[in-house]
Amino acid sequence: MKKPSPYIALAVLTPAILFGGIAGAKALGWWRTSGAGAEPARLDQGGFAGSYDPADIRGSSSFASIEGFFGVPAALLAQAFGFDAEAPGLIAAKAVEELYGEVRGIGGEERDVGTDAVKLFVARMSGLPFEPEGNTGMPEEGIELILTLGAGMDQATRDDLISRAVATRRADGPVSQAGPATQAAPASQAAAPSAGSAAGQGSAAAAAAPASAGFSFTGRTSFGELIAAGLSKSQIEGALGRAMPPSATSVKDFCESNGLTFSQVKTALLGLLGQ
Amino acid sequence: MKGIRISLSALALAISAIAALGAGPAFAAGQKEGAPLAGQAPGQGLGRGGGRGLGRGAAPGGLYAPGAQGAAPQAYRSAEFAALAALPRGDALQAGQIAELVSLYEEEKLARDVYAALGERFGPPIFRNLALSERSHMDLLAALFERYGVSTPVDRGPGLFQDAEKAAAYGRLVEAGLRGEAEAAAVGALIERDDIQSLRELVQSNANEDLLYVLDRLLAGSENHLAAFERRLQR
Fold first, then answer.
1. Quick count: other Cβ atoms within 10 Å of Cβ B59?
2. How far is A21 from chain B (nearest CA, A)?
3. Residue B135's pLDDT is what?
4. Subunit contact A152:B216, Cβ cutoff 8 A
5. Do A144 and A77 sit in the same domain of this protein?
6. ipTM surpasses cut 0.90
7. Testing the interface with A: which of B224, B231, B233, B234 to mutate, by most A Cβ within 10 A?
8. Is the pTM of this model over 0.90?
9. What is the domain extent for residue A105?
10. Which residues contact A61 (CB under 8 A, 6 or more apart)?
11. Residue A159: in which H helix or E strand, if any?
């Protein structure tokens, strides 16, 4: 019997070791990607163990990916920080820093409103634990949204939140948009293994990375094709910032008839597909 | 229950005080107390009205369907439901406890219906958002009822209650709140203070861990809502 060529063995083993190593490192939590849709770390102790950690939201995280991982709607994030964007899912957390940065708070103290404020907003809306930096500020509109729609909190936490108030600004120009994602976000935190059978929870549409090999996004691509490529309806709606039309509608037609920039929407959707 | 009834009476007195302070024409003159507002059919609510916020994405009528509305808090507050599901079910509830919880459910519904009606009139999304939040409180109580095999009260629509006293309170609260935004915020603060009082009484008189968890979540939510109204009143 002829001995296999060492070159063939090398050609087989090299990618196997490379990709196997990456998969193993990801499984062990040693490999973490960055980008608009990067998966945040999970809390590893306490009653919220297994939930995504708001502290790991990054400046590059898109509001769509935050919605995907934490369930806080991108439209709500945009409203909290004063963005009136057509496609709130495309806004990056770092845009908050650009809009506010260091400002004087309602109480007269210097406050910094940036990515840490986004983390704080997500944490107080969802009830997940998070300790903000001492000088982090929160727009008044964000505080009102937390108080009216967010999770309950104790008096000390509520007083701390209110003390961080800064005047809400309005973004009237272009804002930082998230770049392509390197990993698709699950549709909702509700799909985490710990979630119960609560009323109103989404289906476990939450499937993570889609199998989109061979998928080509053209001007004729329909929403149905995006679903077939592995995206969930909520992911698509997060990127659009509005309800998804019938699945036979082409993405380009929809963008043109709704005042959205097709190339930007396409970039965001491809990002969610990991392309 | 006794405490809740007394509290509602105090609420009625406070509403009278707000009405006496308020200026402007009374809303819907001749409207029968406790009846739904003119032109407001069950299922109507958040869909109309301008302003920014969640109203944009909410399906008309969704506010009145359990856990089904657009950007409902359940999406990001699922941890509360999950935590309840993880707790052991306590001892069987006595008839008196069930009656108190059903009354509490209707108090949350009263808050939801009043906020929805006020949200129809006023621009700021606070009332529409709070109506959604109260809906989620009703859902959390419904999840508790399910654990104990208790039937959740049928939601027949805005302004319709099993308890005639709450139906009457609905009419008075909406009428007082529609006089102006400040009056509406004052009505909201009254509702939340009343809810907080009822919840604290229930916490004192119950011991089941899962029941106390739900009461604690509702109490924390009501305290948030009260803080939101007080901030508005201070501006």
1. 13
2. 34
3. 92
4. yes
5. yes
6. no
7. B224
8. no
9. 54-166
10. A36, A37, A38, A40, A92, A93, A118, A178
11. helix A155-163
